[in-house]
Each structure stands twice: as structure tokens, then as C-alpha cells.
């Protein structure tokens, strides 16, 4: 049966605080656990006033204490921002605190300008070139499958589930070569989805932890009682996308009725383009769109993203979405 998971950016809304964002993420994780979602992932972003998940391992530690059974993880850690040893220690610690529940999704794109590079004391362009070697080193620090001159404590022996993330063909090729599960960021970059999944499945080489390909694909999902209510709620995320692509990111804005009608044609076209990996509407609409997307991708899991201005609306969206998919499987 296809599984549902949750991706959260820990959004900070206009008029809100970082502390409120963490409280909302905690409520969302508890809702996801109660409703039977498989994983709850937090994404690493830096120097963005509208996203509070930069210290990802710290956030996950808090969420682990607030939940008891749901898998928690990074979706993902941008490895060029760090050293493999640091990440092995951090996620080895998380595994010791919450055994059998920790995922570590790894991404290559640093997404950082010169100011952030200076703040991180990293040449991220050069670091990105060593990404494949760093992934292998990180896995060895956790598993000991390659003898290294230093051991991570905590870290060595941790049962962390490693994932490769991607929005292009590079991640698919590396995931296949290393025998890792693969998560594609189609919720914001759907262009290479079909080709990437074909390459991953075609070239997959079994590993000690995975004997066959395993795909998770991202969707923007906002579910409400009616299509009209869901479209209104989703306008906050739409505004955030437009602002980000315009180089003017900020805090999550409140919803606006008929927001798209106020936009110039290129911005409307961008939002329409993203809809190929989106499900916004009533439970029936969301069920239909997720079913069509799974038929297209044959994904083993869907990870649902999408922020709402009112945190309670996203908790309600998770509830309605899970119930809709449960009905689909029953049918």
C-alpha cells in the first residue's frame, strides 16, 4: 500500500514568531503521527526569515520528544554545508535518542549566495563537487563498511536510514549507484521527474540496506472541506512561491481570494506548471489527483508539502488527506 509522509519547512508567518513556528511544527508532527503518516521530515534552509528549520537536527530532537512512533528526519540536509563527520555525530545522536525512527535525506544543492558561504566558512561550489565522496564517507562513518582513521561517537553503528534527494538527474544516478532510496522534489521542481525515476529504476544496484528501488515523490497538497476553501488556503503558499522566484522571499502571508487573477502571465504560468505535482481541493479532488500522480510515477511513497497561514488548517489538511487516501485503498 502506498504510504503518505509529511514535509514541513517550519514556516514563520507574517505577524508570527519563530517560537510560534516551532509550536505549529510540533502540533503538525503530532497530527501526522495520530493520522498514521509514515515519516515527518524537516528541510534545511538558511537565512530565510520565513523558514525556521535551519538547525535541522535540533528541530528533529524536539519533534522526537513530542512524538513516539512516527519516523522523523531531514528532507534534507544539504551536505555541502557541513562535513560528513558532523552530520554522522548529529544523526548518530538522534538515533541513540530515538532508535529506529531516524531518516537522513541528503541533498547536493547548497542554495547559498556569497554572504551565506562566508557565514558558513565554506566554498560551497567546491564542496558540491565532492558530494558523492562525502555521501560514501558519511555512510562509512555510520556503518563502518569502509575502514576510516576516525570513528564518530555517537554515529558509528547508528541505524539511520539514508536517502538521496534530488530535483535533477544527478541525484537519481547517485542513488541508483549507491543502492539508496530516492526522493524527488517534484513539489517545487517537477521538470525532470519522469526521466529521473526511469534512470533510478533502470540503473539501481542493490545494497546491504535496499534490495530494490524505492521512490518517494513530493506533492503540494492542501485539502479542505471544499475546493474553494482549499484554493483560498493554498494562496498563501502560492504567494510564497511567487515571491521566492521573484527574489523577494519573506514570511508566509495570509491567504488572498482570487490571488492568481492579480498576477502577470509569467507568474500564473509558473504556478500552473507546479500543479502537475499538486493536489488542492476537497477530499474527493485530492484523492483523484494523488491517485493520478501515483499512477504516473508508480511512487512507493508520497510526501506532502504545502504551508497554510493558519497552522490549524494544515493539521486539518493532513487529516482529510489521510482519510481520503484510506478510502481510496479501501475501494
From TrEMBL:
Q: What sequence ranges are listed for the domain Luciferase-like?
A: 2-294
Ranked from the top, the taxonomy reads: Bacteria, Pseudomonadati, Pseudomonadota, Alphaproteobacteria, Sphingomonadales
Q: Sorted alphabetically, which Gene3D superfamilies does this protein's record hold?
A: Luciferase-like domain
Q: Which CDD domains match?
A: Flavin_utilizing_monoxygenases (cd00347)
Pfam families of this UniProt entry? Bac_luciferase
Which PANTHER family does this chain map to?
LUCIFERASE-LIKE MONOOXYGENASE
Provide the Gene Ontology terms for cellular component: cytosol
- What protein name applies here? Luciferase-like monooxygenase
For this UniProt entry, the molecular function terms from Gene Ontology, in alphabetical order, are:
monooxygenase activity; oxidoreductase activity, acting on paired donors, with incorporation or reduction of molecular oxygen
Species name for this entry?
Erythrobacter litoralis (strain HTCC2594)
Q: Which UniProt keywords apply?
A: Monooxygenase, Oxidoreductase
**Annotated family:** To bacterial alkanal monooxygenase alpha and beta chains.
Q: According to the lineage, what is the superkingdom? A: Bacteria
Which InterPro entries has this protein been placed in? Answer: Bact_Lucif_Oxidored, CmoO-like, Luciferase-like_dom, Luciferase-like_sf
Amino acid at each position: 500500500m502506498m504510504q503518505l509522509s509529511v514535509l514541513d519547512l517550519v514556516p514563520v508567518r507574517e505577524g508570527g514568531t519563530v517560537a510560534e513556528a516551532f509550536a505549529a511544527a510540533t502540533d503538525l508532527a503530532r497530527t501526522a503521527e495520530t493520522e498514521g503518516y509514515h515519516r515527518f521530515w524537516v528541510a534545511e534552509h538558511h537565512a530565510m526569515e520565513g523558514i525556521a528549520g535551519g538547525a535541522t537536527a535540533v528541530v528533529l530532537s524536539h519533534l522526537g520528544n513530542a512524538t513516539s512512533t512516527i519516523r522523523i528526519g531531514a528532507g534534507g540536509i544539504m551536505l555541502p554545508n557541513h562535513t560528513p563527520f558532523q552530520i554522522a555525530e548529529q544523526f548518530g545522536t538522534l538515533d541513540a535518542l530515538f532508535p529506529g525512527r531516524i531518516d537522513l535525506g541528503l541533498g547536493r544543492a547548497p542554495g547559498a549566495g556569497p554572504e551565506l558561504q562566508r557565514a558558513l566558512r565554506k566554498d560551497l561550489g567546491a564542496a558540491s563537487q565532492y558530494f558523492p565522496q562525502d555521501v560514501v564517507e558519511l555512510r562509512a562513518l555510520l556503518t563502518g563498511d569502509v575502514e576510516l582513521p576516525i570513528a564518530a561517537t555517537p554515529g558509528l553503528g547508528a541505524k539511520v536510514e539514508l536517502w538521496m534527494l534530488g530535483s535533477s538527474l544527478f541525484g537519481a544516478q547517485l542513488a541508483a549507484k549507491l543502492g539508496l532510496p530516492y526522493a524527488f522534489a517534484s513539489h517545487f521542481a517537477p521538470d525532470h521527474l519522469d526521466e529521473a525515476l526511469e534512470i533510478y529504476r533502470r540503473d539501481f544496484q542493490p545494497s546491504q540496506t535496499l534490495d530494490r528501488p524505492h521512490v518517494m515523490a513530493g506533492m503540494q497538497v492542501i485539502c479542505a472541506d471544499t475546493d474553494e476553501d482549499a484554493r483560498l488556503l493554498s494562496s498563501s503558499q502560492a504567494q510564497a512561491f511567487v515571491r521566492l522566484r521573484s527574489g523577494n522571499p519573506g514570511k508566509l502571508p495570509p491567504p488572498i481570494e482570487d490571488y492568481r487573477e492579480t498576477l502577470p502571465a509569467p507568474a500564473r504560468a509558473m504556478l500552473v506548471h507546479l500543479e502537475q505535482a499538486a493536489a488542492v481541493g476537497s477530499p474527493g479532488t485530492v484523492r483523484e489527483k494523488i491517485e493520478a500522480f501515483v499512477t504516473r510515477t508508480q511512487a512507493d511513497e508520497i510526501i506532502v508539502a504545502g504551508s497554510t497561514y493558519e497552522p490549524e488548517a494544515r493539521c486539518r489538511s493532513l487529516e482529510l488527506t489521510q482519510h481520503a487516501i484510506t478510502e481510496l485503498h479501501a475501494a
